[in-house]
């Protein structure tokens, strides 16, 4: 075939790069690429790869840019890996690290980035390519970049390539020569890279002086201004963190270096690491925690860290895409006899809220699996004696819902069940009336009585009762109880996590206890439910997002911004410096420049919800909402 060769179902066009004038150089890469005869093209390309690191040519960056594009679009094509591209890229990286004069000439500063990216792209899916890369000696050059010899931009592509090499059994041994250094570097990068990127790039006061031009060009491909640079820097910083965690996953999955990875301080930091909205395809920190929970040493370390267990409990009761990973971690901990008692006091209440959960993430009857894990041998001595009273009460309630009540109702006639349902409806109506009269505590008690009467199999009615009781507890500022009830309502909804009012109520409750990420996820799901609800033709009819929900999303996005902690740290440092210069000035802290006002919680949003309801009477008090 002229001018190209097939790669899978795609076709690489070797004439994409055209020369303006005929070239007589024997080692010109572009001339070699234009050769249509493979028997002539392949030796010339191999010669180019051999000579390129030794020559000084301003066209090197164009060659690597073209190779980068081919490696990204055709990572499974075997031609360049078989002709020595890995050895060439490794030597170019070493030259960039060891020869600063060469790096500063022409556009050579771009070359180490492109070279490491090409290695990572070709090794992403083919173990045989990874073997060729290791044999060509790419690991030492990549380690130089990982050590920070250049900048965070090169560290990002270096750890990506190292992670790919570490993911294959065939190449793990070669990478493991640097195991302790890689693990230590990845842990430090994961913990500090966001602060470093903010300090050196995103938070730069003087963009023209502090931001390196080549980094801006790589981020934006020469298109876009400061806003695009900031957006891409946030995305790349998240990838740097997530790819560092992925490399740790490769070692942890083989139960290597667990003594380093399972340090308590790092596990606590791991809980705060998530891909964010810019990198939602990566499980980030919870993915590594889940891998650790598959090993005995990992479960022991995770179970000993209360902060980590609480974080997993919060994730398990959220609308996050990785909710199932949080549940998996807790189940692995609870099912381990050596760890069970230590974590049960913390894990039992959140897991008990999930025992009626249906299918999530392709997993069937998740709630039944949770119930089996919770009830495992806990009503037998001596295990029961070791439990705290709170955990014991929770497990008794689970036994009642999943076993005792179902068994009792199974023996009841249809008339008796309908009578129970009618009595529950009466209690619910009484609760609604008391709620509207402002008797919130009495209304909550009525909803509780209705839940006791309502048959277990009547899920729709119980969703409403749990959600209404969550609203009562939200008004009473009992955020934990509101989260529990809203979670139970969401578990009973079909599909799971789809009941809009419960999502909004739990979002407010999470806001009250300072869990911004969980609040944000619920609020986004709530808005999605309104926008894409059944029967609304979104293309023909514009759907308005309520102001109170938009305000909540804005608040939580600011709080969960990838660089929020780094920005807060910087402002606190600046405030401390101002205080040192002038002791008379008031100390300013925090991330907001707004004057101090009365502290707000999620409950205040209820008033805004009423204000946005057109054609309806405003409530005299902020908590008056129509119960369902």
UniProtKB/TrEMBL annotation:
Pfam families: ARM_7
Superkingdom of origin organism: Eukaryota
Positions of region (Disordered): 574-598
Cross-referenced InterPro entries: ARM-like, ARM-type_fold, ARM_7, TPR-like_helical_dom_sf
Domain ARM repeat N-terminal plant: 21-263
PANTHER family assigned to the protein according to its UniProt record, in alphabetical order: ARM-REPEAT/TETRATRICOPEPTIDE REPEAT (TPR)-LIKE PROTEIN, ARM-REPEAT_TETRATRICOPEPTIDE REPEAT (TPR)-LIKE PROTEIN
Name used for this protein in its record: ARM repeat N-terminal plant domain-containing protein
């Amino acid at each position: 075939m002229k001018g190209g060769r097939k790669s899978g179902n795609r076709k690489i066009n070797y004439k994409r790069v055209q020369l303006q004038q005929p070239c007589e150089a024997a080692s010109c890469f572009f001339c070699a690429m234009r050769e249509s005869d493979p028997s002539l093209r392949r030796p010339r390309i191999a010669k180019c790869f051999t000579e390129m690191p030794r020559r000084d040519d301003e066209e090197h960056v164009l060659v690597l840019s073209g190779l980068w594009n081919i490696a990204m679009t055709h990572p499974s094509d075997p031609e360049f890996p078989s002709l020595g591209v890995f050895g060439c890229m490794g030597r170019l990286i070493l030259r960039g690290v060891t020869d600063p004069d060469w790096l500063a000439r022409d556009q050579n500063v771009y070359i180490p980035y492109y070279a490491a990216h090409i290695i990572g792209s070709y090794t992403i899916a083919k173990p045989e390519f990874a073997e060729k890369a290791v044999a060509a000696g790419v690991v030492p050059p990549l380690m130089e970049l990982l050590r920070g010899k250049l900048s965070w931009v090169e560290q990002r592509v270096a750890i990506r390539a190292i992670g790919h090499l570490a993911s294959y059994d065939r190449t793990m041994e070669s990478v493991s020569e640097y195991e302790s250094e890689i693990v230590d570097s990845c842990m430090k990068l994961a913990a500090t890279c966001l602060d470093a990127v903010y300090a050196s790039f995103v938070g730069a006061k003087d963009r023209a002086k502090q931001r390196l031009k080549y980094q801006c060009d790589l981020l934006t491909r020469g298109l876009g201004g400061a806003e695009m640079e900031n957006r891409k820097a946030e995305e790349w910083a998240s990838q740097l963190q997530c790819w560092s965690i992925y490399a740790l996953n490769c070692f942890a999955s083989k139960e290597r270096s667990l003594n380093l990875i399972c340090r308590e301080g790092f596990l606590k930091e791991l809980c705060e690491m998530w891909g964010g909205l810019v990198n939602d395809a990566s499980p980030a920190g919870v993915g590594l925690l889940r891998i650790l929970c598959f090993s005995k040493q990992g479960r022991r370390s995770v179970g000993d860290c209360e902060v980590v267990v609480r974080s997993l409990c919060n994730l398990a009761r959220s609308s996050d895409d990785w909710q199932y990973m949080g549940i998996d971690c807790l189940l692995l901990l609870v099912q381990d006899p050596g760890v069970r008692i230590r974590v049960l006091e913390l894990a039992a209440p959140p897991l008990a809220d999930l025992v009626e959960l249906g299918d999530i993430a392709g997993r069937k009857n998740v709630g039944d699996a949770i119930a089996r894990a919770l009830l495992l041998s806990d009503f037998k001595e001596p295990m029961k004696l070791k439990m705290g009273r709170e955990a014991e009460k929770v497990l008794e309630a689970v036994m009642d819902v999943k076993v005792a009540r179902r068994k009792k109702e199974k023996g009841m006639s249809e008339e008796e069940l309908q009578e129970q349902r009618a009595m529950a409806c009466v209690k619910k109506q009484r609760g609604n009336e008391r709620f509207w009269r402002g008797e919130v505590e009495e209304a909550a008690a009525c909803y509780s009585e209705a839940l006791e009467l309502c048959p277990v199999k009547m899920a729709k009615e119980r969703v409403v009762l749990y959600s209404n009781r969550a609203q009562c507890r939200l008004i009473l500022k009992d955020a934990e109880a509101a989260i529990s009830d809203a979670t139970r309502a969401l578990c009973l909804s079909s599909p799971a996590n789809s009941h809009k009012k419960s999502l909004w109520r739990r979002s407010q409750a999470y806001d009250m206890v300072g869990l911004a990420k969980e609040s944000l996820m619920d609020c986004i799901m709530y808005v999605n439910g309104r926008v894409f609800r059944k029967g609304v033709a979104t293309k023909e009819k514009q759907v308005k997002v309520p102001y109170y929900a938009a305000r909540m999303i804005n608040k939580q996005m600011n709080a969960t911004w990838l660089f929020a902690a780094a920005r807060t740290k910087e402002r606190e440092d600046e405030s401390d410096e101002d205080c040192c210069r002038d002791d008379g000035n008031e100390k300013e802290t925090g991330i907001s420049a707004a004057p101090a006002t009365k502290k707000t919680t999620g409950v205040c949003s209820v008033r805004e919800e009423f204000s946005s309801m057109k054609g309806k009477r405003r409530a005299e008090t902020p908590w008056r909402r129509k119960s369902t």
